[in-house]
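W.,

You were right to be curious about this one. When I first looked at the sequence I had no strong expectations either way, so I just let the prediction run and decided to look at it fresh. Below is the sequence, 142 residues in total, followed by the output.
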Amino acid sequence: MVYIDQVEGTDIFQLRLRIGNRGPLYCTAAGKSILAFLEENELENILKDLNLTRLTEKTITSLKHLKKELKVIKRTGFSFCEREYDKYLRAIGPPIIGLGSKVIGAVVFVASSNRIRIKEVSYFGNMVKETGLRISLEWAEE
């Protein structure tokens, strides 16, 4: 997964992703949303070669656990990354769907773990999911 754009927040403390940097599919909100919305055969091809390296104590390292989480993401329409890639960050991300109902990317809301409380995940998830849907619709119209 490659980060291609970023919108900065207004808080005094800000997170900055480096455009062009790559992130792992299995432990980032964007990556997990992309995986969850792939066609089954595409997903299996990626998963068979995926190395689930532990990056924090919260990183998913079990293929069985990852598959279970991908099903939840597909059902809810957005992913939640609970300090899996970085021990200080939480992230929420829906997929961006392109022509032919194929996943082409994801939108991600990333914040420090003290800025997104667990009880707010559903609220922010639905908010960001709307953004993903709008981008998907705009993409389909082009």
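Here's what jumped out at me. The first strand starts at residue 79 and ends at 82. And, maybe more interesting for your project: The first helix runs from residue 29 to 36.

Coffee later to discuss?

I.
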